[in-house]
């Protein structure tokens, strides 16, 4: 073998070795990304980090604003004649009555969740990797993520609230008239919602290495031009949101038309609203989905709700009052 042939063979071998190493790195990244879904990674406080977190809770004041959704009927679900993107789980469309309730105007933020974590003795969130277990200051008003359904439920109970039902979430998102999106029947666009931010090729599930990065979230009070009829922000995009119901794609076929609360049992919990990595087809107020309640991922968050006793009590008193003779 000539010297040139030896050089060429060495270069070919080097390229093969580099390819193998590159493939191994990608496989490792994919495995690490999947681990983020199951929360095999734990972040712990340092003494300095916990002291900084306590200082932030004492001096930074999160917005604690809720809006009232009055009692009454609304159009729930989808009609294929109006929304061609409707999925089977959204059918049939029907009128549903709900008692009055309140719902958070904004998604629960990192700052909200920090108060809960410190009060209940929990460890920091997966993406809080700065200053001994803290989030960066710019992340304070981003929606919290990597929370399971059980985490979200525990937070809402700690805050004196609860997770909204699917029906409550949908009414808060679209109002009473059956509109496709919070702002009307116009499709979602990047001027109204944070979605479709999935990298250079394909959705995040096809690029698992993106799960290792902090996602392209925005502050929960953005998009004033896309609020719901009740003034609720970001019911579409940014992060999807857990609701309290068990998920059944066929539930609407037999669901009650008054205060539906979902199936009594199940294996998946429902979530609504779509996240930063979703596509146009899922950016609709009636879109439904479900997953294992233990899931913790970087496109899932939540907001809380609670019953509105004063208005509900007045309506019930009016219903019970004797009619005029």
Write up what this structure looks like:
The protein is an alpha+beta fold. It has two domains: 1-38; 47-320, paralog of FGE (formylglycine-generating enzyme) (Alpha-Beta Complex), CATH 3.90.1580. The chain has six helices and nine strands. It has helices at 3-38, 47-59, 110-120, 149-158, 166-174, 309-320; strands at 66-69, 72-76, 94-98, 101-104, 240-246, 269-272, 288-291, 300-301, 305-307. The longest helix is centred in the N-terminal third of the chain and has 36 residues, at 3-38.
Summary keywords:
325 residues; alpha+beta; paralog of FGE (formylglycine-generating enzyme); 2 domains; four-stranded mixed β-sheet; three-stranded antiparallel β-sheet; globular
Write the layout of secondary structure elements.
Layout lengths: L2 H36 L8 H13 L6 E4 L2 E5 L17 E5 L2 E4 L5 H11 L28 H10 L7 H9 L65 E7 L22 E4 L15 E4 L8 E2 L3 E3 L1 H12 L5
Parallel strand pairs: 5-8
Antiparallel strand pairs: 1-4, 2-3, 4-9, 5-6, 6-7
């Amino acid at each position: 073998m000539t010297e040139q042939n030896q050089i060429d063979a060495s270069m070919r071998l080097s390229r093969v070795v580099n390819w193998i190493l590159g493939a191994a790195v990608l496989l490792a990244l994919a495995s690490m990304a999947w681990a983020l879904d199951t929360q095999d990674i734990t972040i712990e406080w340092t003494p300095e980090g916990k002291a900084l977190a306590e200082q932030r809770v004492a001096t930074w004041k999160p917005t604690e604003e809720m809006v009232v959704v009055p009692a009454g009927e609304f159009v729930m679900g989808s009609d294929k004649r109006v929304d061609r993107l409707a999925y089977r789980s959204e059918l049939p469309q029907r009128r549903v009555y709900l008692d009055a309730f309140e719902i958070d105007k904004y998604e629960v933020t990192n700052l909200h969740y920090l108060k809960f974590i410190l009060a209940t003795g929990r460890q920091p969130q997966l993406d809080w990797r700065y200053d001994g277990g803290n989030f960066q200051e710019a992340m304070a008003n981003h929606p919290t993520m990597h929370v399971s359904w059980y985490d979200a439920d525990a937070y809402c109970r700690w805050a004196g609230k609860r997770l909204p039902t699917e029906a409550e979430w949908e009414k808060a998102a679209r109002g009473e008239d059956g509109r496709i999106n919070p702002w009307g029947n116009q499709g979602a666009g990047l001027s109204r919602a944070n979605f479709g931010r999935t990298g250079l090729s394909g959705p995040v599930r096809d690029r698992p290495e993106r799960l290792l990065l902090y996602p392209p979230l925005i502050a929960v009070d953005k998009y004033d031009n896309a609020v719901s009829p009740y003034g609720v922000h970001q019911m579409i995009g940014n992060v999807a949101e857990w609701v309290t119901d068990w998920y059944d794609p066929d539930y609407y076929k037999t669901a009650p038309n008054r205060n539906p609360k979902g199936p009594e049992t199940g294996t998946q919990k429902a979530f609504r609203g779509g996240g930063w990595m979703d596509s146009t087809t899922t950016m609709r107020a009636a879109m439904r989905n479900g997953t294992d309640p233990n899931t913790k991922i970087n496109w899932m968050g939540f907001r809380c709700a609670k019953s509105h006793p004063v208005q509900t009590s007045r309506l019930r008193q009016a219903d019970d009052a004797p009619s005029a003779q």
